[in-house]
Amino acid sequence: MAAEKRVAYDAEFKVKAIDYAKEHGNRPAARAFHINECMVRRWRQQEDELRLTRKTKKSFRGRKVRWPDVSTVTIRVKAKAIANQLHIEEFKAGASWCFRFMKRQQLSIRTWTTVCQQLPTDYKEKVATYLLTKTSTLSMHRKCGLYSVRLVVMNLLHTYCIESILYRSINLVLGHTPNLCIFSITFKFV
User: Where is the Brinker DNA-binding domain positioned along the sequence (predicted)?
Assistant: First the structure.
């Protein structure tokens, strides 16, 4: 017996099933809409959110974000709100408190850094010399079908990102990496 294929239902379909289930019950709604009863129960728990979403959205699919983007300002505002709920009036949630909190919880600010490769001083001379030797080689080999040689030099940018502190220190050593050169050789068959 073949397994049933999974179907994604949009919010409008789910709301219709919820309305039918309120009038007739979960099991009759499941039979009427050809779905499982547990789906109807789950959708009834999500009713408020389903009514607020777009009708065509296949809502509430996928996992929640595991590491959401949080700024220091967000941490401070949330801490101040919690302090107000607990009636702690002298708490200020300043920047220094925030950084100490982040240190205690082993959090760090996520930073993107770009390290660019510095081109050598005689870069243009080397490329010109290379192209001259290749064009002379090309002119000698025209008879055998070699038609053109192209050189594309790309300077790559490296980005590193450290999201949370897992070790006491992370050593990042960057050497001079060579540029990526792409050679395009074209043969013309006559």
Answer: 6-51
